[in-house]
Write a structure and sequence with these properties.
Elements lengths: L2 H14 L7 H23 L12 H25 L4 H15 L4
Helix pairs in contact: 1-3, 2-3
Length: about 110
């Protein structure tokens, strides 16, 4: 899926459910929640969970969880960017330019 197609799909999906009605402060809260879930998935994948109240998962299940949580983070970033009239393409271009400039003499 191309970035622009993903943005369009996410916007339509979130709008259909009324999830775009939340303001940016609430959206950032959702983003932080999803970032925490991604951190948990990374931990499970890298060092395991060691929790007796959780079932063990296979490496494939752990990787799928990583992918899904990354998607949740990106989805929230895309919706937040859209609130400010910014595309993910714009975000990535600016990020690339910033890093290139910062490290051009390194």
């Amino acid at each position: 899926m191309q970035l622009a197609d993903a943005e369009k799909w996410m916007k339509e999906f979130y709008e259909k459910r009324g999830w775009t009605e939340y303001g940016p402060f609430i959206r950032v809260g959702f983003l932080m929640e999803e970032a925490g879930e991604l951190a948990r998935a990374v931990r499970a994948y890298e060092i395991g969970r060691d929790r007796p109240d959780e079932k063990e998962s296979s490496r494939a299940e752990q990787k799928q969880e990583l992918i899904e949580e990354m998607g949740d983070v990106i989805g929230n970033i895309a919706i937040l960017a859209d609130m400010y009239g910014v595309s993910l393409e714009d975000v990535m271009k600016a990020h690339q330019e910033k890093l290139t400039k910062r490290f051009e003499h390194a």
